[in-house]
Amino acid sequence: MLLNEELKPIVEYVCLGVSLLGLLIRVYTVGYTPRNTSGRNTTEGQIADVLNQTGIYSIMRNPLYVGNFLMWFGIVLLTCNVWFIVSFILFYLLYYERIVYAEEDFLKQKFGETYKAWAVNTPVALPKLNGFVPPNASFNWRKVFRQEKNGLAATFVIFLMLDVSRSWYFASSDYNSVYLYGSLVSCVLYLILKTLKYNTKVLAD
Predict the structure, then answer these.
(1) Which of 111, 182, 191, 201 could form a cystine bridge with 156, CB 3.0-4.6 A?
(2) Helix, strand, coil percentages for the chain (3-state, nearest 5)
(3) What is the CATH number of domain 1-138?
(4) What is the pTM of this model?
(5) Residue 173 in contact with residue 164, Cβ under 8 Å?
(6) Can you tell me the distance from the alpha carbon of 127 to that of 89, in angstroms, rounded to the nearest whole number?
């Protein structure tokens, strides 16, 4: 579906905002989640010494998957293709439903009644509007920079690629400067963080 030129910038920034909201949810979740707590997958399998019940986990059970969904949903919305949007939603739900089921089955077996009591009062994905419990850990910026360093760059680069593709298709040179400069800045930041992670101990806990 082609956008009216007056609506196009508004729709583009709404889509970008949705994706950045998803990234923000991931940053908040990762920053306040201690090591070896519920929901952490590794090459050895599930790790969970403690069940997350505070912070964002006090209002929803799967904030990282919600964050992932919003990051991709903003990109998909940019196509303005209703069938593609619906197909993405269905695919995402089907794909992650099995993953969530396996993870929650693991937590149920490990934490028993504690997990069941938390799950009964905490929605799977749609956050409840009350009952927020402040995080019991301080925000860990080092962990965020280590684990989420590529999210911002990937978001802006994908938006830029879609914008450039659209411009080429319509033989236009009207590129979105926000996507362009956002990609440049975020990619430089990514390279700096990647260098710090693998060549220094600045981002180590």
Answers:
(1) 182
(2) 65, 5, 30
(3) 1.20.120.1630
(4) 0.88
(5) no
(6) 18
